[in-house]
Design a protein that fits this description.
Order of helices and strands: HHHHHHHH
Pfam families: CH
Low-confidence stretches: none
Oligomer: single chain
Helix content: 55-70%
GO biological process, one term: actin filament organization
Structural class: mainly alpha
Radius of gyration: 24 Å
InterPro entries: Calponin-like, CH_dom, CH_dom_sf, SM22_calponin
Domain Calponin-homology (CH): 29-137
Largest sheet: none
Strand content: under 5%
Number of strands: 0
Distance between the termini: 61 Å
Protein name: Calponin-homology (CH) domain-containing protein
Length: 187
């Protein structure tokens, strides 16, 4: 299924193939193209911004561009970007980026190294980068997508809080009365 998977892995079939196809169906190539253009604008590096899954994974696969993105957003976040062609060094780059992203992206929006390196789930990578792009304004950079909500703190007066607690007591008394009547009805 994936053009990125290691040649040592067996071709997926059956349920594994169906699961992989469902993962790839979620992938949004238009959003991926937008993310690639955003990364290009932030890092100043030149690369193909075609949103196809194969290109998306290929561009980020060695992790160096992700490290450069992290350093462009927050200088010094990734101390050393590996340039070695060895697989574990490329995966280490991806891990460096993920450590950076943990500070700004919800845990549920992070991806695993294998999702990118072996192309197992490019959509997970896309979700992570889209989330980071929404937060770019925190770094003084142009963002992508809807602006993050700031929250709306509300101050309640003692009078308002008391009114709410009284309503709660009335509601729970009514609920107990309904339960008793229902139990009586069953008998």
């Amino acid at each position: 299924m994936s053009a990125f998977a290691s040649s040592e892995r067996a071709e997926k079939s059956g349920i594994a193939l169906e699961a992989q196809q469902k993962i790839y169906e979620k992938y949004d190539k238009n959003l991926a193209g937008d993310i690639l253009q955003w990364v290009q604008g932030i890092t100043g590096q030149s690369f193909d911004t075609n949103g196809d899954a194969e290109n998306f994974v290929r561009v980020f696969q060695d992790g160096s561009l992700l490290c450069n993105l992290a350093n462009a957003l927050k200088p010094g976040s990734v101390k050393k970007v590996n340039t070695s062609a060895m697989a574990f060094k490329k995966m280490e780059n991806i891990s460096f980026f993920l450590k950076f992203a943990e500070e700004f992206v919800q845990k549920s929006e992070l991806f695993q190294t294998v999702d990118l390196y072996e192309g197992q789930d490019p959509n997970a990578v896309l979700i992570c980068l889209a989330s980071l792009a929404r937060k770019a304004e925190k770094f003084g950079r142009d963002g992508l997508g809807p602006k993050e909500a700031q929250g709306d703190r509300r101050e309640w007066t003692d009078e308002q809080l008391k009114a709410t607690s009284n309503r709660s007591a009335v509601n729970s008394a009514f609920y107990r009365l309904e339960i008793k009547n229902f139990a009586f009805f069953l008998i």
